[in-house]
Automatic annotation (TrEMBL):
PROSITE patterns: GNAT. The lineage of its organism: Bacteria, Bacillati, Actinomycetota, Actinomycetes, Kitasatosporales. SUPFAM superfamilies: Acyl-CoA N-acyltransferases (Nat) (SSF55729). Residues 122-261 form the N-acetyltransferase domain. This is GNAT family N-acetyltransferase.
Length: 261
């Protein structure tokens, strides 16, 4: 895999020419900026930009005005190779807050290791309805320490209106959910992307996460996708790199919250 060629393909297919990621979402191209208006319940943010120093501040201000007029928080998804080089400083000066940096990892799906054995008593449950989606949400709550109800709602909407674009799974130890993960299939591209994969603390280090990655890689191959892409936190990056993922850069979420009227 040639990292620069794959990064160029990723930028073109999933950023510059991005398709909406869920029901009701709209991708809009405004000059050198590509944004998604995800509506009240979806993801709102900037997918791509190719700005110069002269026009960067005005472009940032335009996006702030757009989402502030709707009363919505939004994310500027910044990648380490985006221009201009001082874009992070400009975003902070405009009132954005930086989240944790993540590694942009990509692998050829067919080259990843085959199925991983699950610990005794653990099985994988596909997410197909509200009950299994709630189990998925419980793993998110416990693994990441945040409220996963928004993701449950988004997942249910995708399963209802665009089931061909998403797959999710929950690892179950008896009746208890211990790991939840989803993947998105980007129609018309070479990429499927992995999201979540959070394992509850008591089950970490026992191969559950690796098994869930292998399960999703098989689904991607079956559907004809060549590459798997992950935005990896430091906790999962070493595991994914051992499986064969390569780091192509870093990505940082810059969040903007409109002032309260």
């Amino acid at each position: 895999m040639n990292p620069q060629s794959v990064l160029n393909l990723f930028d073109r297919q999933l950023r510059r020419e991005a398709s909406p990621d869920g029901p009701g979402a709209v991708v809009q191209r405004i000059g050198a900026v590509v944004r998604q208006d995800g509506g009240e319940a979806g993801w709102n943010g900037i997918l791509w930009c190719d700005l110069d120093e002269a026009g960067a501040d005005a472009a940032i201000a335009e996006q702030v005005r757009y989402f502030a007029a709707l009363g919505r928080e939004f994310e500027w998804k910044h990648y380490s190779h985006d221009r201009p080089a001082d874009l992070p400083r400009r975003l902070l000066a405009a009132g954005f807050e930086a989240g944790p940096a993540e590694s942009l990892l990509v692998a050829e799906a067919a080259a990843l290791p085959g199925p991983e054995a699950l610990p005794d008593g653990v099985r994988l449950l596909p997410v197909t309805d509200e009950a299994s989606a709630r189990l998925f949400g419980r793993t998110h709550d416990e693994a990441f320490g945040t409220d996963g109800s928004r993701y449950v709602g988004m997942l249910l909407a995708q399963l209802a209106e665009a089931p061909e674009q998403v797959a999710a799974v929950v690892a179950m130890a008896g009746d208890e959910p211990i790991c939840g993960a989803r993947m998105e299939f980007h129609s018309g591209t070479d990429f499927a992307s992995l999201w979540g994969g959070g394992t509850v603390p008591a089950w970490r280090g026992r191969g559950v996460y690796r098994a869930v990655v292998a399960h999703r890689a098989r689904l991607a191959v079956e559907r004809g996708y060549r590459y798997l892409q992950v935005d990896a936190l430091p906790t999962s990056r070493p595991i994914l790199q051992r499986l064969g993922f390569q780091e192509l850069g870093t990505t940082t979420p810059y969040e903007y919250t409109p002032p309260t009227p």
